[in-house]
Amino acid sequence: MAFRSFDCLLLLIGLLSLSSLQPPLTALAATNIRLTRNRKLSQNVPFFREAPGFRNGQACGSSPSDRIHLAMTLDCNYLRGTMAAVQSILHNSGCPENVVFHFLWLRFDQDIKTSIKTTFPYLNFKLYRFDSNLVQGKISKSIREALDEPLNYARIYLADIIPTYVKRIIYLDSDLVVVDDIEKLWRVDLQDKVLAAPEYCQANFTQYFNDNFWSDPELAKVFKGRDRGKNPCYFNTGVMVLDVEKWRQRGYLQKLEEWMAVQKQKRIYHLGSLPPFLLVFAGNIKAVDHSWNQHGLGGDNIEGKCRSLHPGAISLLHWSGKGQETRTEFVNKVNERGFHALDLQQVLKGYICH
């Protein structure tokens, strides 16, 4: 396993400590970040230092076709994660001014908007309200309370929220760090598929649905005949490339809502918004290199059920585990010993659990 750039990641780890509540790394001295003055925010919104301006290189285009559209959700509780993700994307992008962020939130929050604008003065971003009434009565209780939040289902409605001129978009969770140029993921050839993501065909697919599903012949046969007989494979919905134009044309919102209705009636799964995506798309997506989602970080080791690290280079680190370990602990290890002194195989193993 290797990162695309050791020096870039070292700088990035420092930038993960953008909040003034954490001590900065020594590497920050070289980034020319200055404190933003005279900014008053509520106590619920953390204070962030202004990030450096990221500029396009000479080879970057400036037409609408050169834009890279990214979607993320915005929530005060996860704002540090969102800021770190945005920083990592811009820092590693060859054409950062071409990246357009589409943020979805439940309600207008001037403090959050101000925090984004003052932390990233040059950021090209748009804000959209996700109406929680869209999922009222459609969400079933899952195994984790966080999975029941309406904003967790916003990705299902993304194509109907963003402007119609956006034909393709990358959806990203807020609990990740990008260590490669996001344009590489953006340029993936979707062919005739609507969704692209890393697939995990070695995963036990049956665990994502309960006996109520597998014991019903009519429900269980949904995966038969997918994509020339291909078996369904698990994929993580925290990193997806979506052809939203085809999504709209083929009515995928309705297909996902139909499975949410089945869930309300028969309780066929326990994992929030993920299973409907698997029911509709598993076995029928464009597979992306695993480097674009080293997921499972942040899990606990109590049960000892840990995923293996992906072989080769890593382009994206995803803290999608259910345990209490966080990116902050990873940053602390770098603070204590220095990035180059770490045995990354051993360090990351402590964060990769189901």
Automatic annotation (TrEMBL):
Keyword DNA-binding: no
Keywords noted in UniProt: Glycosyltransferase, Signal, Transferase
Keyword Signal recorded: yes
Top-level EC class as recorded in UniProt: transferase
Pathway entry: Glycan metabolism; pectin biosynthesis
Family of this protein: Belongs to the glycosyltransferase 8 family.
Full protein name: Hexosyltransferase
